[in-house]
Amino acid sequence: MRRDRPRRRWRWPGAVVCALGALLSLLAIGRVARAPDPSDAGATRVALAQLAYLRPGLEARANAMQETYPEGRVFTLVLYGLAWVDVGRGTGDAALRARALAEARRALALAEAPDSRIGYGPAGGLPHGIFYEGWTAHLRAGTLHLGGGAARDPAFRAACDRLDTAFRRGPGPFLDSYPEMAWPADNAVGAAALASCGTLLHPRYAETARAWLRAALRQADPATGLLPHDAGLPNPRGESVALMIRFVHEIDPAAAAAQYAAMNRTFATRFAGLLPTVREYPHGVPGSGGDIDSGPVILGVSAPASVVGIAAARMTGHHRAAADLRAGPEVLGVPLQWRGRRSYAFGQLPVGDAFLAWASVVRPWNVPEAAPVAATPYAGWRVAWYGLWGVILLLCLAGLARLYRRPGNVPVGRGGARTRAGRSIAPVHGIETPSP
Fold first, then answer.
1. Residue 355 in contact with residue 308, Cβ under 8 Å?
2. Predicted pLDDT of residue 436
3. Could you name the CATH architecture of 46-374?
């Protein structure tokens, strides 16, 4: 008698769940394993792919961000230019350096165009307030650090003089970005621009920057020692603290290192207990659901704080911590790369791409690079990450193996009997009928 050949069949609902779980696990493991390390050339290649994505239609992308954020146009243009400055300063390739200088100058021209100044009126003793004046002066300084010619640039000297006068004559360390609205982070950018003025033009500008920092630190939060987020309140926040560390380092590396250590004590955390991130509000402070500076705050974590935290870690020599934080966007940011162009968040936030590219390649301009520091507040997270997702992967694969089964038929037994669901089947007149 011919034996039936049993066929394997899936239990489809459970198989789909297990297959999706296995795929998610592989993605989680692979994204972290291949995340760019900001201390090596791989991160620069990724940043170049991001800049290649932003370059076509740069002004249109910046204008789209202006519709979402009050300073979206300027931020997108300036950060794009600053990322190119740092790419150029970090390469020995003459062609890439020339390309970086051209792109940085292009970004500066757009940032200084009349359309970019809309909404920035006189404030803080400056024609356009410290936000606009500080960021554009910093980008102009970057092009001159990269391409030279500061002494022959009257616009740069005029910007240095404006900032120097405003800081020396201001009623306090924090100049207004808009009338009666002042944020320390904007002032830190302007002070760093003055530090570059001191390097490129005359040391007196750098002394004004150092005097600003001494006055600003006297306004630090008594509980944490961190610079405040709002000029009218002592409370620090993760996004602005991380941003200021990058610029404070240009003025006083020791002060930046102290701020970075305090930032880690106050804001370093792991998203869902796993992924290295930076809180928006200090540990134990619930804060709000987020605002225009922080974006959505989820489980206490702010995406801008975590991204700018990469820059803070890089500037202070904490390369392991920078690499830990750089893994976050690879897991949560939905990176997509095609034909040498890379974007995150489905390309819907060009300012976020610009921030991430800049934070991943940022380097000091006026002081030596900080000595590498091995310590990281996120030590051991990769073991936990790989262990968790590895277990999930194994469970999903085991589930798939268990669900891939034979149907009820099994091979013929002794005497021609078969079994089906535990009942014997005996042939009667050539027809199989269950026996009692």
1. yes
2. 44
3. Alpha/alpha barrel (1.50)
